[in-house]
Amino acid sequence: MDTAKKATYNIVYNRKNKLNSDGRALIQIVVYLPSQKKRKFLSTGIYIAPGEWDEQNKKVKKNNPSYIEINRIIKNTINSIEEYEYKIITENKVFSLTKLENYVFKKNISTSSFIDFYENEIKLNQSIEHKTRKEHRYTLSILSEFRRNITFNEINYQLAQEFDNWMRSIKKLSQNTIHKHHEHVKRFLNLATQKEIYDASKSSYKKFISRKVESNRENLTVEQILALEQLIIPEQLDELREARDMFLFSCYAGLRYSDMQALSKSNVRKDSAGNICIRFQMQKVDRYIELPLNSLFDGKPAKILKYYMDFGKEKIFPQHSNQQINRLLKIIAVSANIRHTRLTFHVARHTFGTLLAEKTQNPYLVMDLMGHNDIDTSMIYIHRSQERINQQLRNVKWDL
Description:
Layout: E1 8-13, E2 25-33, E3 38-48, E4 53-54, E5 59-60, H1 67-90, H2 97-111, H3 114-124, H4 130-146, H5 157-169, H6 175-194, H7 222-229, H8 238-253, H9 257-262, E6 268-270, E7 276-282, E8 287-292, H10 300-309, H11 322-335, H12 345-360, H13 363-370, H14 375-394
Antiparallel strand pairs: 1-2, 2-3, 4-5, 6-7, 7-8
Helix pairs in contact: 3-4, 4-6, 8-10, 8-11, 8-12, 12-13, 12-14, 13-14
């Protein structure tokens, strides 16, 4: 083989000198063909932070938790391309960058495992939050159980139907859980498109419609909330009192447990009259929310907040684990004689939304204070509030 015709391969990091929104940049393989004096940049689909790249050795550094896996993927990719080049030349055919590009594209589409891509992305993307990573791993396990080997060109409408039927009939999953799994699959198809190894726009899987259904949004009654307020907890049982107070704060302010755990003194504002407002970034909607605590439910959330702020710690509320808080809430429910409703922070948040809708009948206020992304979600609370009113009216005896 004429070595003058042989292509040269190099690894390039952050060629465009531009980081993405996660502060990472792409690793590419540059192929140079001396005979044509042309080069081609091929995406590896791998993004890393600048401090994780060893420019001298063209490798990912050890400070990246997945450095061994990433370096192996890059090496294997180059070996695969070189083998293809050797095959073309030994067959006395002309090797060109166009042929190489078509080979890489077809290889990615027809033989690359979507399951492997999904799994690698979870491993490699360190910016994914723990809870989100856990949800993605659950979808991966369900998808792998359904069919272990799924290549990109098998991702179509028929597969979506089969996957949907299997989750429904075999796994007995709820409609909203099924919907979430479909959304995760579509998310990773879009991610493969962004990394230029797939074209999700040509996949009929995206045309498969899976809809969410309205879930049972349990909430406490005013009487049950008062029972919690009036519950006498011995002084030595600090954890129980803290769990009760945090749950009530969520009922009065609508915060999720994760947002309450993240709440710090830097989120608190006071006006000249001493009224308390909290401004914080909701984790699920990624935008800032402002809550005037003195204006909500006669200032009850402001009183709870002030009590815990007086302890002088930066994080306002005690840092209990989710498991621990749920265990404590079970004890509190029994002590307050609350039956048939499991106390969770989901229930507390729904209680806030329900009471807010009943008192104001204003969906836009519900939307603003609860941090909803769309008015349809807020309207659910308004509809439920109206149905409660209608139910009460149907039970009235109009003795006129």
